[in-house]
Amino acid sequence: MMGNRWLKRIGAVLAPAVASAIVLSGCGAKEPSSAHAANPEGLEVTELRYQGSVGAVTFPELAEDLGYLAPLKLKFIGNTISGPQDIQAVVTGDTDFGGAFNGAIVKLLAAKAAVTPVISYYGVDENTWTGYYVLDDSPIRTAKDLIGKKIAVNTLGAHHEFVIKEYLHREGLTPKEIEQVTLVVVPPVTSEQTLRAHQVDVATLGGLLRDKALERGGIRPLFRDIDLFGTFSAGTYVLTDKFIKENPNATRKFVEATAKAIEWARTTPREEVSARFEKIIAERGRKEDASAVKYWKSTGVAGKGGLIAESEFQTWIDWLVAEGTLKEGQLKAADLYTNEFNPYRAEEGAAP
Known about the structure:
Blueprint: H1 4-25, H2 34-38, E1 47-52, H3 59-66, E2 73-79, H4 83-91, E3 98-101, H5 102-110, E4 115-124, E5 130-135, E6 150-153, H6 159-170, H7 175-178, E7 182-185, H8 188-196, E8 202-206, H9 207-216, E9 219-224, H10 225-229, E10 232-240, H11 241-246, H12 248-267, H13 270-284, H14 311-323, H15 345-348
Parallel strand pairs: 1-2, 6-7, 6-8
Antiparallel strand pairs: 3-10, 4-10, 5-8, 5-9
Helix pairs in contact: 3-12, 5-14
């Protein structure tokens, strides 16, 4: 059913747990405990700790607001600064789930981290993509022109670094030349300003920040992530193998609820989705600027309900092998993730 890596670690324990979950959801558990009597879904935990994102609504947060997650609840412990930091918090046990770019997750799994991606949560499509912009009067026209230049990114070791380096590779730059292109960590909200002040040569812009910058004019795109990779899911939520083993029912509930929230957002008019996001942000009272969600365009998630495709991990395995970070055959994409808990798996005929 699941990938070999996951099965080897927890298969023996998960099988009876899943069987128990089926009994609980069907004819009733044998000798049910008082806790299970009060909790008909047999959830092993009552809440999931997580990190949020300032001025944004995650799909698990949307799932909770829509009632899909109940009786499971979310416990907010703070805002994440990046995907790599978010999944590291899962590894250290500070949170129960976290999400990051798949390339960063591959690197984490190569380091023997005992986590498993369970559902995609962001990606790239015709409405949701990132561009890498220069000033109109910039002499930068090609990848070669980036040698010795600075590019602003939100964090290192994540989506933008991989995309930039892939662009440079495809345009024929040598590893030594690529090393001369400097990535500078700049908060996304100040990237445009940093570019216009000539503190960097290229700014990474997406969503509202990109649209507003284009309205002001004076910038042009050098390349876009969608031009390199097309439509694809770019990041997934991970849980530790230990959590999945000990909490299979809660794991299934989390994935099912998040998958349903993704599909709600995909099939609901944009204005209604944006209004829902604004309501959630206002009600949680974190003193945030909710203006960005008014311009929400799409989920960006390629697979129905966040189903994970093998290619979405194989792409980055191949990339890391080419970079020399991984050895050929060190990781097998099909063993890194699971769609087992996603309710759309059977409907879409996706690999487990």
